[in-house]
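Review the following:
>
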Amino acid sequence: MSIAQNVSRILADIEAAAIAAGRDPKEIILCAATKMNGSDAVREAIAAGVRCCGENRVQELTQKLSENAYDGADIHFIGHLQTNKVRQVVGKVSLIQSVDSLRLLQAISKEAVRQDLMQDILLEINIGEEASKSGFSAADILPLLQDLEQYPNVRVRGLMAIPPICENPGDNNKFFEEIRALAVDIKAKKYDNVCMEILSMGMSDDYEDAIAHGSTMIRIGTAIFGARNYAPAPPMG
């Protein structure tokens, strides 16, 4: 299927999943994960109805920005962000979804102050408490939010999570529920510079379950663009 056909199918699936959950389909945003896809593929997805693109790599973000690949869509950063590359991202994207440490939060705040702008972020939760993944534990979040007034140029708009890889459909539902419950708890406490309007959870294999359990943003790459080719390029000769 073409990128346009894939986008059309996913948008229809989002609508159906939302209605089945008693939700308004307009509450759910499709964020196209554009890693390892060129500018032409990104433009095709946007032409097909994608209104949000999420980039994983700073180098790709910079390249595609220079090629005006994202015209017509909101731009998010969704990959692991190193503190030494924060300057290349802050102010270039409307939302940094993958803020996974206090050190990164501090670096983003410092750069936002330098640029005199407000940078919207999501806090990444390591909901499965996996040693191989970065992110805050659920227990770390509330103390962090109490100190957020130290970072007036950063606004937390919600949470992001990548649950563990599961073998069976529905296995991740408990993690989606935990994220939603955490967001409800945070929202009730009314912290400064915090609004829990975005729950970014659900990818190509589980986005319908995520929608059923409260996701407001799904990050889809493979189901739009096809499987990525991670093989190294052949040597030049």
